[in-house]
Specification:
- The complex is a heterotrimer of chains A (290), B (313) and C (510).
- With 290 residues, chain A is mainly alpha-helical.
- Helices cover 70% and strands 0% of the residues of chain A.
- Chain A has a single domain, classed as Orthogonal Bundle (MetI-like fold).
- Chain A has ten helices and no strands.
- The radius of gyration of chain A is 22 Å and the shape is elongated.
- In chain A, 52% of the residues are buried.
- Chain B is mainly α.
- Chain B has a domain of 170 residues: MetI-like (MetI-like fold, Orthogonal Bundle), CATH 1.10.3720.
- Helix content of chain B is 77%, strand content 0%.
- The mean pLDDT of chain B is 81.
- Classes of the chains: A mainly alpha (290), B mainly alpha (313), C alpha+beta (510).
- Chains in contact: A-B, A-C, B-C.
- Chain C: It is found in: Periplasm.
- Chain C: Belongs to the bacterial solute-binding protein 5 family.
- Chain C: It comes from Mesorhizobium liriopis.
Chain lengths: 290, 313, 510
């Protein structure tokens, strides 16, 4: 789908692009919610009267109240404050996974698409990687690398890289045959320069669209790994570890696990709304219908 | 055609080899010593070293790799260190819950998605259509384990309608076992319906604009009949493709869901194997799941070649 | 020790009243499902010290001796207590006649001899005993003679233990790892489906003791037809299953969840006290190889806060520095004044005097296999930070922890727990080779005197000296005492609360 060539975005059309993006209600809602989450994550902990990691065993498992809007957890920590701090990490993990998978995926895809001799081996490697169910591969990778934030990012980055690599490779194969690329080559422009200036620029929109969805998938996967106990260390607050931690108190203190789950749903849904809007705009072939 | 097939076959074998290699590398760089786990907390270093020798864990990695390759080719996936039974046997024992869980969630996903998708396409742009699209996206945004936990709390603990977990225990009847699958299948099915809704809607839209549908309409055929008999029939191929894709995705979902509901399936086995450092089981499960995926893809490729001889490499 | 019965109490008064409603003559027949904390790594009781292995395999296999009330060693496969001669060096053990294995063969001294030899090789407790054993012989078909190098009081306790256990196997079944689980116990293995169940059925040809049941000792009645152990690693799932009546018995319920054990299908069974959580320190390498810094850790930690985080309310823990709580012969107060200060400021002063650079991290290794380990680690980390330590919490899975703690370079503190073992010399830190690697002249001297003494009263006194060295050199931090909670169906009768629950003598009321 997004693998097909997409229209390059003329520089002059950027403001127009933004305007038509913001004309879509779902996109606006998605962006607004994301912005809200981001603000909460960035400034929430500063505004909160509580420290996220300060233990207060006397006030453990307190239900939501005017003092603690979302209640307290089993160490007596304020759930809202932790939710905000955890949000930083959950968003950071999602974003970093996008960066890692872009670096790996785009490099592999470009190499495969541009150098015929590399094409088959890289394509086979992508096939092999994509044969593993993503959570299963992520579990095995995190188990191998050790449970830490950096390793979860690395593992998920590796897991999602083939998705991008595949798209980039397919697009590169098309773009390299385009007349103006051929022309640039005939003019003696070096290959790396062609790859970066002409090919990569044309790839920006499919990469952007795919990145949004990888962001969403990565947040869900991080939560799943943490829940299974094979993700980031449970002492690191992320929305996933908060759910895992609250599971034990499901019927005594359901707020501990309920709110982080809700936060995930909001964040992932917003990302999908935005990604969808982007795709519709950037990929004319895929009209609003899919 | 023979050339094409043999070319594809070779490609598939290369992918399989890569799959085996990836699995081997991942598992061998994993820290944690199965010998230490087997011997319990008070084991001495000498005990552990002795057991490592016995299990062959002390040989050079490359030797272990080629040994492993040879074994895999012979269909020998090794012996589970922890369970003391062949890996294939362990996987086979756990195939049933995973199979039925996947099947039922797929069934639920399709039952939810097809009517919504079809009606959305039919009433394109209506309030129903718009809210259906949003709901589909919402479903895809819910962590399945979180939904599962909420469902356990509400339907199993509060209302007592369904068992909380497990697969019925020793000698449970088939009906009892299926009863244990209701909640997990819904948790997974709801979350997985999103993709099918979107594709059903899209494929139906394509078809509804086609000439023969217009013709059928103009002949005065009832709307329901037009949609179900003509349009759906023609939209079915892309829909079936996406259902197949969803089935593959469900295996990932099953890993987490089985753990939430303590279902003794393949996913649960893998999570436990990671925690137990049971190398052969992790290897075997990854290999079987990925291998099946590669094989099925290859067979579909072959089918296309047979159906349409123009397809060339 | 007289207080043991008082110490073992059924938790809720409500439980007692429902129990009374069902109290009646033991009934024969019925099948129970027992939810365990997971799949045992093996059914060979020699090969593992895991509690879980002991809980399951003690129904299948039997040892020469076992523990009666007050943890007194009593005979099981041995006919009577051994005849001890040559100033405590020679143990002559008569075997019971007519005992058969599950495969139908008769047990004689050749089986016992072969089994004890396997035990000395395979089992860690066997290896510990082997260091003191000169020879084992079978003078005739019903007699075993063990000759020691020098008097060694823990021998009988080691022979009585149910994990890393000196079980008797048929002499033709000595393979390592064990091939067939064939023992002499009241129940035999019928079917094992890993991760699903271990099904045990009554062994009809069982020849048990005829003296009255006495904790693990005496007659073992086979009321139940079948016992099925179902691995349920997730504690919440065990609770939910117990409440729904899926399990007749569910082991190891998190104390936080006791409030959920309501309804008419389940009730809480508390074993009070069960054991002690322990922070083992690395005395061999790294930051804590310096005893002054270990003392600073001890000074900084507030046990009560750790225990609250781990166990919720004081119904389930006791702040207690003695290595054995009241009720045990080993209980004493030697050295405990160093415990329970919870004074990070004092610790900070001591720490800077000890020359801590303020940057080397203190690495705490823990897992979430047991939730209270992890929670204690979180709280301890806060206290240690207040004391000036740079703290690094390594939360890994249990498998990684059991491996990593073998490596002296990898950690400074790891968190574990232990039931109160009937013989103190079996405690992990007492062994020079166990992770932590606590070795010192004072320790060796105190333990040597303790192990060589055979008179129980004198041994109790000598243990005071051992505990004093423990608090002087701080090889570990004992957090306190904690209770174990299990869930039991009111219909299941005749279950004695024990660290390793057993189900012979148990029956289902109609």
């Amino acid at each position: 789908m997004a693998a097909t060539m997409t229209a390059a975005m003329p520089a002059s059309g950027r403001s127009q692009f933004l305007r038509s993006l913001l004309r879509r209600k779902p996109v606006v809602i998605g962006l607004a919610v994301l912005l809200l989450i981001l603000l909460l994550a960035l400034f929430g902990p500063m505004l909160s009267p509580y420290a996220a990691s300060k233990l207060s065993l006397a006030s453990r498992l307190k239900p939501p109240s005017p003092e603690h809007w979302l209640g307290t957890d089993d160490f007596g920590r304020d759930v809202l404050t932790r939710l905000a701090v955890a949000g930083r990490l959950s968003l950071l993990v999602g974003f970093s996974v996008v960066v890692v998978s872009c670096v790996i995926g785009v490099t592999l895809g470009l190499l495969a698409g541009f150098f015929r001799r590399l094409d088959t081996p890289v394509a086979r490697l992508i096939d092999a990687m994509m044969a593993f169910p993503d959570i299963l591969l992520a579990i095995a990778l995190v188990a191998a690398l050790g449970p830490s934030v950096v390793n979860v990012i690395a593992a998920l980055g590796i897991v999602y890289a083939p998705r991008l690599a595949r798209i980039v490779r397919a697009s590169t194969l098309v773009i390299r045959e385009l007349p103006y690329v051929e022309a640039a080559r005939a003019l003696g422009v070096s290959t790396p320069r062609i790859m970066v200036r002409h090919v990569l620029r044309n790839l920006l929109s499919p990469i952007l669209v795919q990145s949004t969805f990888i962001f969403a998938s990565a947040m869900l996967a991080e939560a799943g790994l943490s829940f299974l106990g094979v993700g980031v260390s449970p002492s690191v607050p992320t929305w996933g570890t908060m759910i895992a931690q609250g599971r034990q108190y499901l019927d005594q203190a359901s707020w501990i696990m309920f709110f982080p789950g809700l936060a995930i749903v909001c964040a992932v849904l917003s990302l999908q709304l935005v990604g969808d809007g982007l795709r519709d705009l950037l990929d004319p072939r895929l009209s609003k219908d899919i | 055609m023979i050339r094409t097939i043999s070319h594809r076959l070779l490609g598939m074998l290369v992918v399989m080899l890569l799959v085996v290699t990836i699995v081997f590398v991942i598992v061998r760089i994993t820290p944690g010593d199965p010998a230490a786990v087997m011997l319990g907390p008070d084991a001495t270093s000498a005990d552990i070293a002795a057991l490592r020798t016995q299990l062959g864990l002390d040989r050079p990695l490359l030797v272990q790799y080629f040994q492993y390759l040879a074994d895999v080719v012979r269909g020998d996936f090794g012996q589970s260190i922890f369970l003391g039974q062949p890996v294939l046997r362990a996987l086979a024992d756990r195939a049933e819950p995973t199979f039925f869980l996947t099947l039922f969630s797929l069934g639920i996903a399709v039952a939810i998605a097809l009517p919504i998708g079809i009606y959305s396409a039919y009433r394109r742009g209506s309030a129903f259509d718009q809210s259906a699209t949003t709901v589909a996206m919402l479903a895809a945004s819910i962590p399945s384990f979180w939904l599962g936990l909420l469902m356990i709390q509400f339907f199993a603990v509060k209302l007592g309608w369904f068992p909380t977990s497990g697969y019925g225990g020793p000698g449970a009847s088939f009906a009892t076992r299926l009863g244990h699958l209701v909640l997990p299948a819904f948790a997974l099915g709801i979350v997985s319906s999103a993709l099918i809704i979107r594709f059903t809607r899209a494929s139906m839209l394509d078809v509804l604009n086609d000439d023969y549908v217009r013709t059928a309409r103009s002949k005065g055929m009832g709307e329901a009949r037009v949609i179900l008999r003509h349009a759906l029939k023609n939209a079915m191929i892309p829909i079936l493709t996406i259902i197949g894709l969803t089935a593959a995705l469900l295996i990932s979902g099953a890993v987490v869901t089985e753990t939430v509901f303590s279902l003794p399936g393949v996913g649960n086995l893998v999570v436990n194997a990671v925690l137990r450092r049971d190398y052969p089981v992790i290897q075997g499960a990854l290999l079987v799941v990925a291998g099946l995926y590669v094989l099925i893809n290859f067979l579909i490729d072959m089918l296309y070649i047979l159906v349409d001889p123009r397809v060339r490499y | 020790m007289k207080h043991w019965h008082k110490a073992i109490t059924l938790a809720a008064a409500a439980a007692l009243s429902t129990a009374a409603a069902y109290a009646q003559e033991p009934q024969r027949g019925g099948v129970i499902d027992v939810a365990t904390i997971g799949e045992p790594p093996t059914l060979d009781p020699m090969a593992s010290t895991a509690d879980l292995v002991g809980i399951v395999s003690q129904n299948i296999f039997e040892t020469l001796f076992t523990f009666g009330t007050d943890w007194k060693v009593v005979p099981l496969l041995a006919e009577a207590m051994p005849e001890i001669s040559d100033e405590g060096r020679v143990y002559t053990i008569k075997l019971r006649q007519g005992v058969t294995f599950h495969d139908g063969s008769a047990m004689d001294s050749a089986d016992v001899l072969a089994s004890l030899q396997r035990w000395q090789k395979v089992a860690s407790r066997g290896q510990q005993a082997a260091a003191n054993i000169a020879s084992i012989e079978a003078p005739d078909a019903q007699t075993i003679r063990i000759t020691l190098k020098e008097p060694y009081a823990p021998l009988l306790s080691l022979l009585a233990f149910n994990n890393s256990a000196a079980v008797v196997l048929p002499s033709e079944n000595m393979a390592v790892p064990m091939e067939k689980p064939v023992g002499t116990g009241p129940y035999m293995l019928k079917e094992r489906k890993p991760d699903q169940y271990i099904q045990l059925a009554r062994f009809d040809a069982y020849k048990g003791r005829e003296d009255a049941s006495d904790f693990y000792g005496g007659a073992r009645h086979q009321y139940l037809d079948e016992i099925r152990f179902v691995p349920v690693p997730d504690p919440n799932t065990r609770v939910e299953g117990a409440v729904a009546g899926q399990f007749a018995y569910a082991d190891s319920i998190p104390v936080e969840s006791v409030g959920r054990l309501t309804g008419d299908k389940t009730e809480a069974v508390t074993l009070k006290p069960f054991g002690w959580p322990v922070f083992v320190m690395n005395t061999k390498e790294g930051l804590l190889s310096d005893v002054a810094k270990r003392r600073a850790v001890l000074t900084a930690l507030n046990p009560e806060d750790l225990l609250i985080a781990g166990f919720g309310t004081s119904d389930f823990y006791a702040v207690d520095g003695s290595l054995y709580p009241e009720g045990y012969a080993w209980n004493n107060k030697e050295g405990v004044e160093a415990y329970g200060q919870g004074d990070p400021e004092k610790a900070a002063t001591a720490l800077s005097e000890a020359g801590y650079d303020g940057t080397t991290p203190l690495r705490i290794l823990t897992s979430r296999q047991y939730e209270f380990h992890y929670k204690m680690a979180e709280v301890a980390a806060e206290y240690l930070k207040l004391a000036g330590f740079q703290v690094k919490l390594d939360v890994v899975d249990w498998a990684t922890l059991t491996q990593r703690r073998q490596d002296p370079k990898a950690w400074d503190i790891f968190i574990s727990h232990s039931p109160f073992l009937p013989e103190p010399s079996l405690i992990g830190v007492m062994q020079d080779t166990s992770p932590g690697w606590w070795v010192s002249e004072a320790k060796t001297a105190a333990l040597k005197a303790f192990n060589a003494e055979s008179d129980p009263a004198k041994r109790a006194e000598l243990f005071g000296a051992v505990q004093k060295v423990f608090y002087d050199e701080v090889p570990a931090f004992k957090v306190g005492d904690f209770n174990a909670v299990a869930a039991k169906s009111p219909k299941l009768q005749g279950v004695t609360p024990a660290p390793w629950p057993y189900f012979w003598n148990a029956y289902l009321a109609k």
